[in-house]
Sequence to fold (103 residues):
Amino acid sequence: MGIFTRENTELAVDLDGLGQQHRGEDGGMIIALERWHAGLDTAEMFAELPDGACQEPHWGYVLKGSVTMRYTDGSAARRRDARHQHARAVAERRLLLPGSACA
Fold:
């Protein structure tokens, strides 16, 4: 797999004032580099899709800031940037009692 940057991928989505998505493909996978502005709510954009949600599987990293994902079952999950996740994981490990398993 190669290195993907905004300079060597195609601008696939450019929503004025909301953000951008650049895409590349490798190994049968679509690689998307996305940058969205704070406060973006995609509910209206996805309203006409089945269950009002994107149907594609997603894997990825939040490099800066945070994102809240809302799922069709009504649950939600907030993900923060990798630096925050590392600090949180370290803090959680400090709270483990002796003899407890580290997940």
Q: What stands out?
A: Residues 86-103 have pLDDT under 50 and may be disordered. The CA atoms of residues 21 and 34 lie 4 Å apart. The chain has two helices and five strands.
